[in-house]
Each structure stands twice: as C-alpha cells, then as structure tokens.
Design goal:
725 residues; 21 helices; 38 strands; Nucleotidyltransferase, domain 5; alpha+beta; 6-stranded mixed beta sheet; 7-stranded mixed beta sheet; 4 domains
C-alpha cells in the first residue's frame, strides 16, 4: 500500500494526517499553538511554532501508524494564507509573522490603493487592497521597522516557509500567492506594475510554482527528525481554502463548498476569472492548473465560537473533558434549546475586523439586543446564527456574479454539527452535503502530493478517487427559512448603521492606547460618509484657479453667485455631471473664521470646492429637535485644496474654518440656482419655518454669533461654541 501525507497548517494548530492511496485516514495528530496579540487588532505567530508542530506531528503519525517510511511517497501542506514571513540573507526569520487576521495595515492599504489605483489593482490582481493581505504588511514593516525591512532578502507565506524548512527550496505556490495583492491573477505571474508602483524589489519575491508541482525533497536533517525517508517528494501545496476545495471534491465549474473553521468561507471553482468590481469577494488562482476560484472570507467564524467557549464556558469545558466529551457539543445542544432568532439577540462576528463582504478593518463584534433575559445559551445560538448569516451575506454577492450553487459541500468543524448544518441549510436556503472524510484541507494537500508523486494523473482524478459523499445531509426547512429572512434583514441593517461608529471606536482605542490622535478627520474618511462624499470624477484644477481670484476680507465673506466664476464651460460640468442637469449658481465663502457660530440646512445638496485647506463642521439632520441642536452633535472634517465635497441635503453645516497652516480659507460654493435669495414673504415664525432665513435655507445660530445677535433666526445652536484655537 502507498501512503500520502497531508499537513493542515492552521492558525490555532497544525494537523498532519496520513492517508492511504484510497483516501482512508490511517493516523492523524494535531498540535496547537498560541495566537499572539501584542495590540488590539494585531495577530502574530512565531514561524517556529509551525515548523515544530509540523515536525512533531509527522513524527507522531508515522509512529502511530507503524507505516514504513519507504511507503510514504509524498507530502504537501495546506496553509493559512497571507501571513508575512521575512527571511534574512541566511534564511533566518527576522520577526514574528504578521497573520491574515491582523488589521493594523489600513493606512498601507490606502497607500496601495492610491499608488496603484483601486480599479487598476482589481484589473490586475482581481482584489482590492485589504488589511489581511500580504502587500500591506510588507509596507507596514518598511514604514515601522525599517531595520528589519532592510535586512529582508526573501518573503514567504506560512506554508511556503515550512516547506522551505523541509526541503531547503524557496518558492511560493500559486493559490497562496494570489492573496498577496502582488500577483497578476489572469497570467499567474508576479505583477511588475504593482511591484514597481509600490517600490517592492522583485528579488524579494520567490519563484512561483503550481500546487501539484514537485517543490523539493525532504532533507536528511528533516528525515532524521521525523522518520520520513530522505528524498520524499514535497509538492507545492495550497492555501488552506484551495486545499479544502480539493478535499471536498470542488475542482470543476459549478462546484462549491462552505467551510466553518477559524474563518468562514464560501468557495466556488470557475474555469475563468470571475471578478466582483467592488472587490467584496476574492478571485484567486485555484490549486487546479488553469482554474480559478471565487471565494468569500469572514475572518472570525469558528474563532467566534472558540472565543465564546473560552470566555463563557471554561467551567463546562473542564467538566466535559473529564467526561470525555467535547464542550462544543454541549454548547450546541444548549443553543438548540433556544428559539430561532435567539429571542431577538443578533451577533455580528467581526472580532478581528471583517473582510468579506464589508471590507472594514475597524468593524468589531457586536451583541445587539442583549437583555437581562438572555443566557449563555442565547449568546451561543446568536453566535452560531451570526456566523451563518455572514455566510448568507457573502452568498448574495456570489449570486450577483452568477455563481449560484444549489448544493453546498460543508467542511470544517461546523460541518460535523447537525445543528449547525441545519442552520446553514435554513439560512442559506440550499441543500448542505458533507463528505466521508473530515480532513478537507489535509486531504486536499494529500491529493496534491499524490499528483506530484504520479499516484494520480491529475488533480481531478485524485478528487474523484479520494473524495466520497456521506449520508450527513441537511435540507432546507421552508418555515425556518422564511423566519430567517426576517432575522437576516435585521442583521444586514446593523453593519451600515454601525459603520461610522466602528471608525470612531478605532479612534477611541488609539487614544486609550496613548496615541496622539487628531479630533479632525478627513472628508474621505468613513465618518464623513453620512454627511456627504468627495466627488472624484470632475477636474477641480480649473475650479480652484477661478476661486483663487476671489477676495478675502476679515471675518466671513459669502457671495451666492459671482459672474466671473460662472464660466459657461465650468457651469455645464457642474450642472450636468454633479447636479444631474439642475441649473446651478457658483459663488464663494472666504474668510478667517475659526469657530462654528451657526449651522445651516438646505433642502438641496451643496458642493464645496476647496481652493485652500479648510475645516468643515457638520451635524446630521437627525440631531435637530424642535429647532434646537446641540454642538455635541457637531463633527470636524478637513477638506484639502483641490477636493470637491458634496454635502447631502440631510447635513447641517456652515462656513468653513481656517486650518492651522493657513491664515484664511477660500471655498467655492455651488448650489441650485435661486438658493439663498431673500426669505419668502409671509412665512410664519413658528416651528421649522421660523428658522428660515433665505429662500430654501434654514439657519441655527449660536448665541455668540452675529446672526443670533441680529435676530436673523429663531433656531438655536446650544452648547459650547466650537473653536479651533
């Protein structure tokens, strides 16, 4: 009998499985290791954890099975993706690896997007710049640890590092390389354009190999440590999800699987790259030659359940272990006693930020609707439901890409739970099937090893021979599915509502950690999204040159319409491209103001074009109560010279303020024609109408302002008047 080894190098541990050539599990061994979190949102591991666990687990399965090393033909590794391993000239590790679930690199993601261009990056790499990917990690080390970066001579991913330690050969396998943000996905080569724009030396990137290629051979040193035969074939291997696809038989067009391991993934095989233009799900190269994959990835699926176990069920875990039971079974049994929907408790599984489909490193876990009646069992069910609802969120994006599986093969720890399988069937509204093997990634790795050793002529043949369907299946319960539609609608409502709060929370965390964080955000930040947006598809150079001609006087000077600004060519662009054909007027607001003083409200959008840097103070219309607004609701945002900012009609704002590096500001103001003319006659002075000061303009003045002293408005701005100095 011939044998193959599959190594599943995960985030929580490494599992090595010995299979015979028919796919039967002969022996397995799992060795766990810690996740290092030196700061909130950071995730690291010492690569030595992985190597030691691989060596020790291989040794254990060989000893356990008593199989002769001469009969073990090959091995390969399925590995956690994206982790940055940096080696020096001697091949030594320079620092702990920064992992896929680390969210420290949003700044570097923004830099990549700016240098390459979001659209161009997706055209080449099929994916946007994300904190989980490898390229932003490289830039983070270059910026924050230049000494380490300058010593770096080779960049590897986790499983590729372990393979290097087993064989002495440095290479990066294609499915894993897809998640670096540096690969030309369509042509399956490193992108010279991306590397050049990011100023990353191509010599740092090793050669690329296919998943089933022979990548090297076990060295004498490793043979002595493990019991393997020196010269045993080591295949390229695959990223964990690409390997899991093979381990569940997903290797041809129309095949798909869902896995609920540390992360949660829906994964579909395609014969050509299928790209989401918004980058909400990922397109990678498959572990099958000339194949690609469309996949989503939620960062904290099983991790959420593990967190629940560790933080809420420590006593039960010890108790169940003493009985020889798995505490997860106890937890799901208790959750099954709770009604569908967890009595109104909703869980958002964003413990480590989120990737698919919300792309938000600042997102964090939420229990929404928590009340005194809720128990640990409620929270467990809410976690299980929330993880599964996140998979539905991703499945809807795949549906938009015409990837519509009617049946999903489930793998990972969650697939073994009948309760969780039924949740999948009910929430995702499709049949859930499983395979006889529980070793998805490890079996996929073994299939690749078998192809490299010529046990199989192709990956497809290996899948056909080794992957077998089981009788553990779940059909959709129509009644439950209908109720889960309502639960999902609530789930889907929460993230957009909380998105700006997540960003604010990130700022608060930074302050609590002692960082010097400005109270003024930029207009292209997440927090500004509810007030307006930066208009990027108009050329502001001409507009700024016109605004530069406007005068500056002490105080604040506003002109609603100015002839020399309203050039016909300029007005056509503003009218047709920005205001959709609505006739507009072009004026300015200049001055040296440094205080809030007033807020105004238009029942139309307003475009501001900054000819200098300036600070905008804004508040949401929802903060206005009975003609009164408190300055506590006001936020400050920096607009930079050349930016054009559209305020929504639900935004309260007033004159800009001077930034610390300027003595005055100049801002062009574009409004629908006829705005800010005299107040209509005969308007009653009560209610909202009493705050009307000009045609279609309502003013809410602070008692310290000239407007309030002149009695221009009955609306009031209460609280401390905000000043910049």
């Amino acid at each position: 009998m011939r044998y193959l080894l599959g190594v599943d190098l995960g985030t929580s541990g490494t599992k090595t499985v010995l299979f015979d050539e028919n796919g039967n599990t002969v022996a397995s061994k799992t060795i766990e290791y810690p996740l290092l979190q030196p700061k909130n949102g950071w995730a690291e591991q010492d690569p030595k954890f992985w190597y030691d666990a691989t060596i020790d687990s291989i040794k254990a399965v060989l000893a356990q099975s008593k199989v002769s090393s001469n009969d073990v033909l090959a091995l390969s590794i399925a590995g956690q993706m994206h982790g940055l391993v940096m080696l020096d000239a001697e091949g030594k590790v320079l620092r702990n690896a920064i992992l896929w679930c680390d969210s420290r690199t949003q700044k570097q993601c923004d830099e990549i997007t700016q240098k390459v261009g979001k659209k161009r990056l997706i055209e080449i790499n099929a994916n946007p710049a994300l904190t989980g990917f490898t390229a932003p990690k490289i830039l983070w080390v270059r910026e924050n640890e230049p000494d380490i970066y300058n010593k770096c001579r080779c960049i590897l991913l986790p499983k590729d590092y372990v393979r290097y330690m087993l064989t002495g050969n440095k290479a990066m396998e294609i499915s894993d390389a897809s998640g670096t943000n540096l690969l030309d996905i369509k042509n399956r080569v490193w992108s010279d354009e991306i590397l050049e724009k990011l100023e990353i030396d191509k010599d740092l990137m090793p050669k690329i190999i296919e998943s089933s290629d022979v990548a090297g051979y076990i060295t004498a040193e490793v043979a002595a440590k493990t019991g393997l035969r020196e010269g045993t074939i080591v295949a390229g291997g695959a990223g964990d999800n690409a390997a899991a696809a093979l381990g569940t038989g997903v290797c041809k067009e129309g095949d798909a699987f869902v896995t609920l391991g540390t992360s949660g993934v829906i994964f579909a095989h395609t014969n050509k790259p299928a790209i989401d233009p918004l980058g909400r799900v990922h397109t990678f190269c498959a572990a099958v030659k000339n194949g690609w994959t469309a996949m989503s990835c939620t960062l904290a699926a099983g991790l959420s359940l593990r967190w629940t176990r560790d933080e809420f069920f420590a006593f039960e875990k010890k108790e169940q272990e003493q009985k020889g039971n798995d505490v997860y079974n106890y937890m799901t049994d208790e959750a099954a006693k709770i009604p569908l929907g967890s009595d109104g408790l909703i869980y958002l599984p964003y413990l480590m930020g989120e990737r698919s489909p919300v792309l938000d490193a600042n997102a964090r876990g939420v229990f929404f609707g928590l009340s005194a009646r809720h128990t640990k069992a409620h929270m467990t069910r809410a976690v299980l439901e929330g993880i599964t609802l996140s998979q539905r969120h991703n499945l809807e994006v795949l549906d938009e890409m015409d990837v519509v599986p009617k049946t999903l093969t489930a793998c990972g720890g969650g697939a073994q739970s009948p309760f969780w399988r039924q949740l999948l069937a009910d929430i995702l509204k499709c049949k859930i099937i499983t395979t006889t093997s529980k070793e998805g990634p490890a079996l996929g790795a073994a299939i690749l090893a078998g192809v490299a050793a010529k046990v199989f002529s192709s990956v497809e043949e290996g899948c056909e021979k080794l992957v077998k369907a089981s009788d553990r299946q779940s059909e959709t319960n129509a009644k439950n599915a209908s109720l889960y539609d309502d639960v999902y609608n609530m789930y889907a409502f929460l993230y957009p509502t909380l998105r700006p709060a997540f960003s604010k929370l990130d700022t608060l965390r930074s302050r609590l950690e002692g960082e010097n964080v400005s109270t003024i955000k930029d207009v292209d930040s997440v927090e500004f999204e509810r007030y307006g947006k930066v208009i990027e598809d108009i050329d502001t150079e001409k507009l700024v040159s016109l605004i530069d001609k406007t005068p500056v006087i002490p105080g604040t000077d506003y002109k609603a319409s100015v002839d020399y600004l309203e050039e016909p060519e300029v007005m056509k662009v503003l009218r047709d491209q920005v205001f959709g054909g609505l006739e507009v007027q072009f004026g300015y607001c200049n001055g040296d103001n440094k205080a809030l003083n007033c807020l105004e409200y238009h029942r139309n959008s307003e475009l501001n074009i900054a000819a200098t840097d300036a600070v905008l103070m804004v508040a949401p219309m929802t903060a206005l109560k009975d003609g009164i607004i408190d300055t506590q609701s006001v936020e400050m945002f920096r607009v930079r010279k050349g930016q054009a900012v559209m305020f929504y009609e639900t935004t309260l704002h007033y004159a800009p303020c001077v930034t610390s590096n300027n003595t005055f500001f100049k801002v062009g103001v574009v409004l629908p024609k006829g705005t800010n003319t005299d107040k209509p006659q005969g308007v009653v002075s009560e209610g909202e109408s009493g705050c009307l000061t000009h045609n279609n303009k309502w003013l809410y003045a602070h008692q310290d302002s000239n407007e309030a002293k002149a009695g221009i408005t009955c609306g009031r701005l209460i609280g401390r008047n905000l000043k910049l100095d």
